[in-house]
Design goal:
By secondary structure, the chain is of the alpha/beta class. Helix content is 42%, strand content 15%. It has 20 helices and 17 strands. Bound molecules: ligand NPW, adenosine-5'-diphosphate and potassium ion (K). Adenosine-5'-diphosphate is lined by residues 371, 416-418, 420, 435-437, 439-440, 442-446, 448, 473. One of its GO terms (molecular function) is NAD(P)HX epimerase activity.
């Protein structure tokens, strides 16, 4: 399996520029892009049909003119509607317009309802601002017509870098993109607008570019770092993870996380419980052990034993001063640590103080696993927050929010959701895509935190452990499908692990 880089529009321009500098003319690239789009269109049209190609004012439109020419030559009845007359185009797009060589109607006259296929070549990576006016109207007509749509490179109106809609955006059944996918193909709502995405090789390399290293999440990212079991080893070689339980009445979350950690392969897992919650935890635990700690000082004492090498805390701990003290004790002990839910929300309005704790020099990784609401509460209050924290929370792009929090707290961040982003403090990130909406079920995130801790207990580095946990959690949930509850996720891991490890 090869790494799948996701290039932003600046990096993509740079990749194109390098290819052109190395001797392939830009127009040759456009011919290849247009041909790939025409091939994709033909696969969507089993026989000759009526194709409407919508062409924008830039090179995306150029790709559309080339595709229109090829489709017409292959016997389809092609109508081209364009934002600008061919005479007003420049560069490669002008050449492509001349290659089309037939009539072009204004965008306002385009009739998507009368087409068997609409090819969307309005805007690609060059979309620079929100769409307005007649383009918005044309997109509404396309989306309202209910005809199959093939988008060239990016569904027009979707920001290739962020996946956000800029004013209005085409809803495509398929998208053909070039060289590699872009973050906007994986981030919602762009992912939903793009439909099935295929990547065409047009001779542009995506490797060796400056700027953020963003990839699609997959085993190629983290399988090389996956802990291998030693045939002569024993359970202590695979670490001992501790998961903090809430009080009586709030104990289930910790047990879900603990089960995730154990199934992920930690040698031993213990739930840290207060004496008051001991009986309820004991009534539900078998392979998972328990340790009684009634306050953070006792927890610090427990952590003088360095066999406890991974910690997970947050779910159902309660929001407030007490939880902050548990978090401080955990961070001071310098173990591989997962902070989730109330461990983050307890620092609402105290982002600077939280970051100071997380940033203190340490040997072992800290992984934060907020969903969007938890990130917002941590960075944007209520309460006094710095301009820096508020700016990160306000970033429109999920990718930028995750990377921002990771740098701010010097921690690995798992920003959860349908398009979970895992980010490192150095700015690299992966976007996950193998999940299922059935994962949105109570306690699902608790299991995820436990899986991260279980992998780190076995010595897996933090970023790889987080990316692997997100992928395995999503895979287990997607394989189970309808009816999934959080308890099913740990039980789905053995099958996922078997397929991964052979
Ligand atoms: N580079 C290469 O070699 C290759 C590139 N390829 C293809 O090129 C595409 C990128 O081409 P691109 O850079 O020309 O950008 P594109 O997406 O066509 O849009 C830019 C145009 O739209 C305009 N515009 C922007 N926002 C607007 C708005 N809101 N509302 C209205 N207008 C707006 C903007 O004008 P301006 O901002 O100057 O007003 C400009 O005219 C890429 O996605 C791929 O399909 C392939 O052929 C392979 C080789
Ligand atoms: N539509 C979806 N597609 C894929 N994964 C999802 C979707 N909705 C939620 N998830 C995943 O489910 C988990 C929910 O976690 P979280 O929000 O913490 O819930 P809880 O607090 O109930 O455990 C996260 O891992 C998230 O990425
Ligand atoms: K497009």
């Amino acid at each position: 399996m090869r790494m799948q880089p996701l290039l932003n529009s600046r990096q993509m321009r740079e990749a194109d520029r390098r290819t052109i500098e190395n001797g392939t003319p830009g127009f040759t690239l456009m011919l290849r892009a247009g041909e790939a789009a025409a091939d994709a269109a033909c696969r969507m049209l089993p026989q000759a049909g009526r194709v409407l190609v919508l062409c924008g004012p830039g090179n995306n439109g150029g790709d559309g003119f080339v595709a229109a020419r090829i489709l017409a030559d292959r016997g389809h009845r092609v109508t081209v509607a364009a934002m600008k007359p061919v005479a007003d185009l420049s560069g490669d797009a002008a050449e492509a317009g001349h290659l089309w060589g037939e009539a072009v109607c204004p965008l306002a006259a385009a009739d998507p309802a009368g087409a068997d296929l609409v090819v969307d070549a309005l805007f690609g990576t060059g979309l620079a601002r929100d769409l307005q006016g007649e383009v918005v109207e044309a997109i509404a007509r396309v989306n309202g017509a209910g005809r199959p749509v093939l988008a060239i490179d990016v569904p027009s109106g979707i920001d290739a870098d962020t996946g956000l809609v800029r004013g209005a955006a085409v809803k495509a059944e398929r998208t053909v993109t070039f060289a590699c996918r872009k973050p906007g193909h994986l981030l919602y709502p762009g992912r939903a607008h793009a439909g099935a995405v295929e990547v065409a090789d047009i001779g542009v390399s995506c490797m060796g570019l400056d700027g953020p290293a963003v990839h699609a999440n997959g085993p190629e990212i983290w399988l090389p770092a996956f802990p291998r079991i030693d045939p002569a080893g024993h359970k202590y070689d695979r670490g001992h993870a501790l998961v903090l339980s809430g009080g009586p009445g709030h104990t289930g979350a910790a047990r879900l996380a603990a089960r995730g950690a154990l199934r992920a392969g930690a040698g031993l897992v213990s739930v840290v419980t207060s004496a008051r919650a001991l009986a309820v935890n004991a009534a539900h635990l078998t392979a998972i052990m328990m340790r009684v700690c009634d306050d953070p000082d006792e927890f610090s004492d427990l952590l003088t034993d360095d066999r406890f090498n991974a910690l997970a805390l947050g779910p159902a701990l309660g929001v407030g001063e007490a939880t902050r003290r548990w978090v401080e004790a955990a961070l001071e002990a310098d173990r591989a640590t997962v902070l989730d839910a109330d461990a983050l929300t307890s620092f609402s309005g105290m982002a600077e103080g939280f970051a100071a704790l997380a940033r203190a020099p340490r040997e072992h990784p800290v992984v934060l696993t907020p969903h969007e609401g938890e990130l917002r509460r941590l960075l944007a209050g209520p309460g006094e927050v710095s301009a820096e924290a508020r700016e990160i929370a306000g970033r429109p792009s999920k990718l930028d929010r995750a990377v921002g929090l990771a740098a701010f707290a010097n921690a690995i961040v798992v920003l959860k959701g349908a398009d979970t982003v895992v980010a490192s403090p150095e700015g690299s990130a992966v976007i996950n895509e193998n999940g299922s909406p059935y994962l949105g079920t109570a306690g699902s995130g608790d299991v995820l935190g436990g899986i991260v801790a279980g992998l780190m207990a076995q010595g897996m580095p933090g970023f790889e452990a987080a990316a692997c946990a997100v992928w395995m959690h999503a895979e287990a949930g997607a394989r189970f499908g309808p009816g999934l509850i959080a308890e099913d996720i740990p039980e789905g891991l053995p099958a996922v692990l078997r397929d991964l490890l052979g």
